[in-house]
Each structure stands twice: as structure tokens, then as C-alpha cells.
Design a protein that fits this description.
Blueprint lengths: L15 E2 L1 H9 L7 H7 L1 E4 L4 E5 L2 H11 L3 H4 L4 E6 L5 E7 L3
Parallel strand pairs: 1-5
Antiparallel strand pairs: 2-3, 3-4, 4-5
């Protein structure tokens, strides 16, 4: 029997935007309801400053598109990231767009 004992459903996690993240989401036109998608599908890396970055890369966007379908609104999330605290992984520190 195969089990995933470490599975942590994103729908069960309480995700909270810090005041800074809330302000940046507004300034950068990233809808707050899309932040859980970034956390669920984004590629996870440590940012080297005590946070964990979730980035919607091309691969992550393809996976997200297969899961919920492709749309123009979804395409605006390409390159978006969210940084969460490495201590609790429930507090979103900031959100933004990665530009190449």
C-alpha cells in the first residue's frame, strides 16, 4: 500500500498575507485569490534570506493549466512568485513578478 504521510493539502492550510504582502499584491495586480494557486503549483526554492519562494515557471504553469484549464487571466500569473516564512510556512511575506 502506497501512502503519502507528509501530504499537506493547501485547502486545509490557513494562509495569511502579511500587511506588506497585501499591499504588494494590490500594487502589482496579483489577485489575492490567486495566491493559493501560486503556493500549490509554484516551484519551491529557498530564497537564502529565511524564506521559501514559490515561482510559477513555465513547467508550473503547464501543470496549473492542465489542472484548471487555460485562460487569459491565468496567463497573467506566469512568472509570479510568493515568498513565505520558512518558520511557519503560513505567513506570506511578499508577492511579485519575476522579470527576465
Amino acid at each position: 500500500m502506497i501512502s503519502n504521510a507528509n501530504y499537506d493539502s493547501m485547502s486545509r492550510r490557513k494562509i495569511e498575507l502579511s500587511r506588506h504582502a497585501y499591499k504588494r499584491a494590490q500594487q502589482r495586480a496579483i489577485p489575492q485569490e490567486c495566491v493559493p494557486l501560486i503556493l500549490a503549483y509554484g516551484e519551491r526554492t529557498h530564497d537564502g534570506q529565511g524564506g521559501i519562494r514559490y515561482l510559477l515557471t513555465e513547467k508550473a504553469m503547464a501543470s496549473l493549466g492542465r489542472a484548471i484549464g487555460h485562460s487569459q487571466r491565468l496567463e497573467t500569473l506566469a512568472g509570479c512568485y510568493a515568498v513565505v516564512s520558512a518558520e511557519d510556512e503560513e505567513t506570506i511575506i511578499t508577492v511579485g513578478h519575476r522579470y527576465n
